Amino acid sequence: MHSEKINLDEEKYLLLEYQEKTLFFNGLNLEELLKKYKTPLFIFSQEILELQYKKIHETFSSLNTQFLKIAFSVKSNPLPEVAQTFMEKGADFEVTSIGEIKHVIANGGEPNKIIFTNIVKDKPTVKYCLEKGVGLFAVDSWSDMRNIEEACKALQIRANVLLRVNPGTQLNDTLFSCTGGNSKIGILIPKTFEGESQFNKILDHCLNSEWLCFQGLHVHLGSQIVNLDQYREGMRKISLLITQIEERGFEIKILDIGGGLPIPYGEKHVPPIEKFKDVIQEEFNGQLSSITLILESGRYLTAPAGVLALQISIIKERESNLNIACVNGSFYNTIPDVIIADWHFPIKKVKKNINTPIIPYRIVGSSNDTLDYYKGSIEGNSLVLLSKLEEEDYIVFLQTGAYSISFNSTYCMEERPLVYFNFNTSKK
Predict the structure, then answer these.
(1) Phi/psi of residue 184, nearest 5 degrees
(2) Closest-CA residue to 157 (of 167, 149, 166)
(3) pTM summary value
(4) Spatial CA neighbour of 43 closest among 385, 377, 334, 261
(5) pLDDT for position 191
(6) Per residue in 251-302, pLDDT tens?
(7) In Å, what is the CA distance from 137 to each residue of 116, 183, 192, 406?
């Protein structure tokens, strides 16, 4: 059988190829699959989830740390099969709600491997976490710390805490910066340990609390980080903070550096994760040898593992030679990221055309909403180049495994897409 690898170098296209003009994903003949299941349809690959986890673990294992842990950010993908896959790999879990805690436990995760990071933790929520045995709390503010402490006292249970710090580094190249002076996330790092600051006040209280066990620091610069210089600045400030804390005679046992590892969504350049490892190695320069390092990841782990299949319902040809392709689903109900974040998901046709013209299309969702369209990859005009489309053709959007299922809605009372999960049957 003639098999043609897609001529793209990025690892995001793992397990994707054309065989006899038909697109295969993780060994699945998509044409046959889509005739069996209705579209819109999300298709997930367990093998790619495992490969992405392996890639992070192998890359960052070369760092000189006491222990390395990878925490899956549950909010990025709520499928039970995804949580089970990472649980089997030994992952920790970063969660932000009671619902996510229940989800992790229901799918075999151990409560002591859960890191609770939400910026608001009311006392009933903290009590629930303590009763279930949640392993770590990220303290985000003075009030947050007091809620945790009072819940601990009421139950007579001590809590392990990390101080979630904000290094004040502004990320200009992402929509999802979690740092900088105006961010709602974290405790701002003081310029000096001399005098009063919110950080010093919280740190001193934690160190002297009967109910809080200070373990170290948590920082999350943001999601989809593409500027290594800004990432380096943030890590440098964290390194300096560790030095200052240790000079006061206090031990840092755990450093959780959050997530941010990027996935290509049409950006001209996305640094490989090895570059992030190099920054950590250079900026901490041996500091981590007695520290457990935690890396959180959601997008990098799950995005390449999912594709969304849609069918072309209607082709409209305008007098201006503008070709409009209407798909059989709304982007609000499938991949609202194209509306919220303007992500440019790569698109492939399931049946490859030979000797047909390449045509610019405006791909629109099925609702009446004027924002319900794909922003495209041709700068400035929301068009995408594809070989000629026909009504009833299938197309797939790649890199849709992260957040799409979390965000998609029932707008216009439409049903959410079905999900097909392809288990890795080659595992021993």
Answers:
(1) -80, -5
(2) 149
(3) 0.93
(4) 334
(5) 72
(6) 999 999 999 899 888 656 789 999 999 999 999 999 999 999 999 999 999 9
(7) 5, 20, 25, 23
